[in-house]
Amino acid sequence: MITVSVERDDGIPDRVPSAKALSTFAEFVVEALSSKLKLASDWQMSVIVLDDEAMRAVNREHRGKDRPTDVLSFPLCEFDAGDDSEVQFPGQPRLLGDLLISYEAAVRQAEAIGHDLEAEFERLMVHGILHLFGYDHETSEQDRLQMEALEDELLVLWDNRLSHR
Q1: Can you tell me the distance from the alpha carbon of 135 to that of 43, in angstroms, rounded to the nearest whole number?
Q2: Which pLDDT score is estimated for 77?
Q3: How many other C-beta atoms lie within 10 A of the C-beta of residue 135?
Q4: Domain residue ranges of the chain, discontinuous segments joined by +
Q5: pLDDT cut 90: percent of the chain above it
Q6: Residue 105 near residue 115 (C-beta atoms within 8 A)
Q7: What is the pLDDT of residue 42?
Q8: Torsions phi, psi of 128, nearest 5?
Q9: Interhelix angle 117-132/19-36, nearest 10 degrees
Q10: Between 3.30.310.260, 3.40.190.10, 2.30.110.10, 3.40.390.30, what CATH number should domain 3-163 receive?
């Protein structure tokens, strides 16, 4: 079972997709990745929606970058991306990590790309969840291409799921 808690900072408008929508999407992505990578499928994670000011503070504190960013991932477990063995955490909950998303960055990017806000949140969540699973697009061109391909694959799977409802 996958458990996703969703929090929104005070002042985040109702325009953000609902906690239920974000949780359902995150559960789908984590389940799909767990299945693809042959990993255990009982994870806990959180999604926190912040404004640019709060995201900037977190980015500065944890990455030394004094600017807001769209998504930050804080993994709580370590394994190699693409590890095809079962990951076991005997006697402990499987804590995947925390995902932080800037509402204002999502709005800007949705407008720039030309899709709706929900689609942008989904794009950012897939990207961040892949980081929680150990993927990193900044290590090599091959890793970047692998991560982008997985992002696309997961978004297509989600779209196909929605179209068959």
Answers
A1: 17
A2: 80
A3: 22
A4: 3-163
A5: 66
A6: no
A7: 81
A8: -65, -40
A9: 40
A10: 3.40.390.30
CB half-sphere exposure, 165, CA atoms < 13 A: 6
For the record, the structure tokens of 23 come out as 């949780």
d(CA 42, CA 149): 24
Spatial separation of the C-alpha atoms in residues 86 and 39, rounded to whole Å:
5
What is the token pair recorded at 92?
């402990």
- Round to whole Å and give the CA distance between 84 and 63: 29
pLDDT tens, residue by residue, 14-66: 888 999 999 999 999 999 999 998 887 788 999 999 999 999 999 999 999 99
Q: Residue 91 — very low, low, confident or very high, per pLDDT cuts 50/70/90?
A: low
Residue with tokens 């408008």: 13
